[in-house]
Amino acid sequence: MAQQAGYSPSFKLPTEIMRLRRKRARSDSSGSTESPGQSRSSVAGTRPFSPGPLFKDQNPSRPGLKRRNPFATIENTYSPQKKLFIYDEHGGNGGPIHTEWAEKGGNDVTTAKEGSACGDGLMEKHLPEDEALLEKEEDDAPSLLLKSPGGIAPSSITPPSCTEYPADWSLKTRVLFTSPLSLSWAEQPKAQDEALGLTHSCRAQFSTLPHNLQDPKSCSELRCAFQQCLVYWQHPSLSWLSLFPRINAERAFSGKSSPWAQDAALQQSLMRDWSVSLSSLFSLLKSGLCPYFYVCSYQFTVLFRAAGLGGSDHITALVSPTTRGLREAMRTEGIEFSLPLVESQKKSRDDLGDEELKEKMCCDREDEEYNGDKGDSFSWLKEMGLQDKIRKPDGISIQLQREGQTTALDHKPESVVCVEGPHTFNLINFLINCKGLVAAAGSQTGLPPTLLAPTAFRGATMNMLKGRTMNVKSQVGSTHQNISTLELTGPILPSSLHAITTLLRLAQKGNFSAALYTHSPTAVLNVNTSKEQSSGGLVDLTGCGLLPASIHQLEQPATLCKSALTDVHMKNYSYAWKS
Which one, of 61, 71, 56, 60, lies nearest residue 119 by Cα? Predict the structure, then answer.
């Protein structure tokens, strides 16, 4: 058997093990010269059965003590409790396991280690060579388990902490914050705190908050900073109309007073003031005094970002959703743009294998030939004499069929358009002179698009997000837990959301959750437009009026693609989110 493949020389047959046992029993009964304290059967730290932990002061002659099983293996004697005990011995979290072993009569970890060290040394002295080898193999079995990946305790793996969530460029209509700690400090502010918050917002000043905030409600700097985070600037602003959102908001405008709807002179005056405000915003954007702004029309939304934001070193503008007519009009005005999502899909198709690519190209070529010859494919009708009885498609139908792929993008997220660099100035002129920017019929007739920005601009009105706090009870298991909530409504800008979460991180001691409600047409504004790695640090945005931490977050390239954040959770100062 020694020459067979896979045979282990240290393997002992049951007959050989029994022979060794009988030989040892005869030597013990014949009267050994060793003292009882030196005999193996009375050695402290040896195993009563194998494998298993070592016990002290054991005596085989004691009644009720289980003898060692000569046929024991890891598979039939290594219980899950002992496995947990060995994991705990090597640094796992073993508080409950210690208790379980104590109840079953086991020893603690230190005793097991000392007994193992003592027992192994004595067995090498007093056991025959074959049996010492057998015992050594049994002792090595737990160590082999510990070296395996399954022997690593899950509690010893600490998840990495995340101190920031990705930038979300979509506009939020509502945010609901919840926290086990009280949010009463965000209730109706004092007059002085509100005044300081508005003043700091206009002057782009930020209060220094204490690191160890014991009582948030008594901290005036915190309340002042919270009021500052609620500020946003809007044009036009009408007290009886909610001018955000504008897409699919016909019901919100119906029945409201609109004196400009039938007055052409009033419409021209509104558009004139709106053009001045838009030009002012773009000038601030170019000089780095305004980080970004939104143009919200009844058909699409435009996001202008300053150079250095979104991973780009140039001014960028995203328009979504678009139609084929709008894209053709932009090309006519000399505006160069790209379709980021369409290009990314085309790039992924280019990465396919050669066979799949050739097959796809062949199919496309056949479709083109079919579409190209479709208008002349009725010659067989003439041969049959049926040319006068069949109506042929006209040239317009054939042209529409060929342009099916182009119009299929209309009103979809894939129709998002990206304009970069100096072409953004042409886009501003296009928006000012575009007649289709203002609705010609419906409840939004004659009303210019809504301009939203985090900083002041010409003709803008300062508005504030509406907040409401409430204490509720939530069932957690069989008990009820008090939870404090803070609800914010309005056009919530990306910088406002980040500034508020920064305050909650400090005031709520790193434990809160946020449910985000996104204006769905703006979710695609999270598409990544950076074609190459940004140089970073070359664009100075310190004077744009945002927190340095918010600037750092918005400088990162977008990673959410065409989705938006729906939930943000912070636990023990570590972020987790869903999109």
Answer: 56
